[in-house]
Amino acid sequence: MSKKKILVVDDEPFFVEVLGTRLMAEGFEVCKANNGEMAFHLAKKEIPDLIIMDVMMPLTSGYEAMQKIRQDPTTKHIPAIIFPERPG
Question: Which residues 6+ apart lie within 8 Å of 38 measured at CB?
Fold first, then answer.
């Protein structure tokens, strides 16, 4: 049985590392991206089973990235968890 793959997206490297490490400890394969544009390209390339993404990111926001992911036939089916803006 192959591992389930999760794409973790956030512009804060510490958050990506902590969450990625925890998910790997639970047996998941983890792909990491630090912006929305990279997330879209990795989603198309890796076809993860789930995307966990922050909303507030430079260049391409999580909302914009998810809009592109939902418009693409190869990625539109991927479920996603979107984190709202974290307080200050």
Answer: 9
Q: The tokens of 82 are what?
A: 């979107």
Which domains occur in the chain, in start order? 5-83 (3.40.50.2300)
Residue 84, C-beta contacts closer than 8 angstroms, at least 6 positions apart: 55
Q: What average pLDDT score do residues 44-72 get?
A: 93
Rounded to 5°, angle at Cα 56 from 34 and 29: 40
The pTM (predicted TM-score) of the whole model is 0.92
Burial of 61 (0-12, 13-18, 19+ CB in 10 A): middle
State the DSSP code for 78.
-
